[in-house]
Amino acid sequence: MESANMTCKRNSVQLAFMYLNDIVTLLVGPPLAACLLWHSFKSKRARLDVLNINLALFHTCQYALSAAHFIYALIWPEAPRNLLRFMLVYAQTGGPMSLCLICVERYVAVVRPTDYPSLERYRFRELGAAVVWLVSVPTAVLSVLSVKVPSWWMQLFRRNGPFFLMMIMMVLLWRSSSAVAQTLRRSGPGGAAPRPAKRRAYFTVAATSSVTLLCYIPVASMMHVNRKSSVIPCLLTPLCVALLSAASVVHPVLYLYTHRRALPVLAS
Known about the structure:
The chain has one domain: Rhodopsin 7-helix transmembrane proteins (Rhopdopsin 7-helix transmembrane proteins), CATH 1.20.1070.10. Helices cover 83% and strands 0% of the residues. The protein has 10 helices and no strands. Helix 4 (81-111) packs antiparallel against helix 6 (124-148) and helix 6 (124-148) packs antiparallel against helix 7. It starts with a helix and ends with a helix.
């Protein structure tokens, strides 16, 4: 473990890549998240867009962690390992969980429309948003503490907890997304094309599944391998951070694209 850390100390390429990733994320991510929040509240969709608003706020906290990492790394390049570990687990847990809840909501709306009013009656969106924070933050904290605590159950949690949590979310997301896609691909009565709302729902689940497949699943796999070796390899860490940063930027872009009036540039 010590030799791997010493290799990281001498490798300035990884540090430069991390700096560049933090800068690009901070320049692009916060304005997009602000546009998403502004559009949701301006269009009076806040009551229905709780999960998307929560994900935008979740990503805003991720941007704050990126800013803290950037400042801290400039002052003390080898110090912010715990901050980086917290950010990795935080983002890889809460991000896909939020996307999974959005897909489940779309599943109920499209496949089981008679049950859709129950989502509001039982506060599904609000409870889901709270669960994202109550799971992702403690999981990230435990992942940081487990490095310093020799308890066997802490080590077991660090090596397998986030990965298996991700796998459970992937199963739920896949089942709900595939059911929504099959339902929405069917033409309307008389062969009519699906309505715009249904096309938007189809795009939402397709985009959500793509972000998860291209960003979150690779990160979960790489981090699982890293935990098995009890170190964070220098080559994989920047790639994991870059994928999580890309996922945090892609979500507001896709949301604003489905609501093109919110961002005229995307409407052209």
